[in-house]
Write a structure and sequence with these properties.
Blueprint lengths: L1 H5 L2 H30 L4 H24 L3 H7 L1 H6 L3 H5 L7 H29 L3 H23 L3 H12 L12 H30 L9 H17 L3 H4 L6
Helix pairs in contact: 2-3, 2-7, 8-9, 8-10
């Protein structure tokens, strides 16, 4: 994280924009492929799909070329590789089935590969900083808040869930508010929980987009390497005075 703090802001912004852009493109690719499978795609949809495909190809080729370990890169990014395989072009080589069925199968494979690329990034996001456990805890607190406001104010459980959610997210429309002392204390607790969740979400987004590993657990050897890199970063940030050994007078 020390290296990230010393990184120029424009570099941080570019990394953030890149990660967010690739996630968005993967989601758009899934949507376009699903549309193509259900209805006849419009010309602009086909063009957009092809443009996104070549962006994925360029992205994979660039990252593969600059990676230190080519085999490790391929091993760690199987869905990125699968997403750029032109299944429709490959299946046109075979004549053992009707062309329409082959192309439909190819589009299903494209949909699967695009979806896996998107879901892989989502899974890495929720693994960052243990964010999935924070989400589970927040959900439990919201449900308990709904039960609590039901007991304290006599509110129905569906309305209690709605009130608990909007209070925890600090939206608070004001259409429903507690009047009892216990209900007010519960509202304050939910507000504080929501503020903490928003702070955790912000930290998780920053760590996910700026960390090269995206929250994934590293093998033991790679953890050692990362620890050594961190120590080297700490040493590089030390001044000459810090490096001078202390001598008693």
């Amino acid at each position: 994280m020390n290296a990230l703090r010393r990184m120029p802001r424009h570099i941080l912004f570019l990394r953030l924009a890149y990660q967010a852009g690739m996630c968005l493109l993967a989601l758009v690719a899934v949507t376009l492929t699903a549309i193509d499978l259900t209805t006849e795609a419009a010309e602009w949809e086909v063009t957009a799909d092809r443009v996104i495909y070549w962006i994925f190809v360029l992205d994979y080729v660039v990252r593969f070329s600059i990676s230190r370990s080519k085999w490790l890169f391929v091993k760690e990014h199987p869905w990125d590789l699968l997403a750029i395989i032109p299944f429709d072009a490959l299946f046109r080589l075979f004549r053992f089935a009707s062309l329409g069925e082959i192309l439909r199968l190819a589009r299903y494979l494209d949909l699967f590969s695009y979806a896996m690329r998107f879901t892989t990034r989502i899974r890495r996001f929720f693994n960052t900083n243990g964010f999935k456990y924070i989400c589970i805890a927040a959900l439990v607190i919201i449900l308990l808040g709904a039960v609590g406001i039901h007991l304290a104010e006599g509110m129905s459980l569906p309305n209690g869930i709605w009130w608990s959610f909007v209070t925890a997210t600090t939206v608070g429309y004001g259409d429903t508010y507690p009047v009892t002392t216990s209900g007010k204390f519960l509202a304050v607790f939910l507000m504080l929980t929501g503020i903490g969740f928003v702070g955790t979400l912000t930290s998780t987004i920053t760590s996910f987009f700026l960390s090269p590993h995206g929250g994934e657990a590293l093998p033991y050897r790679e953890e050692e390497i990362e620890a050594i890199k961190k120590k080297l970063d700490d040493l590089s940030s030390m001044t000459d005075e810090d490096m001078t050994p202390w001598r008693p007078c």
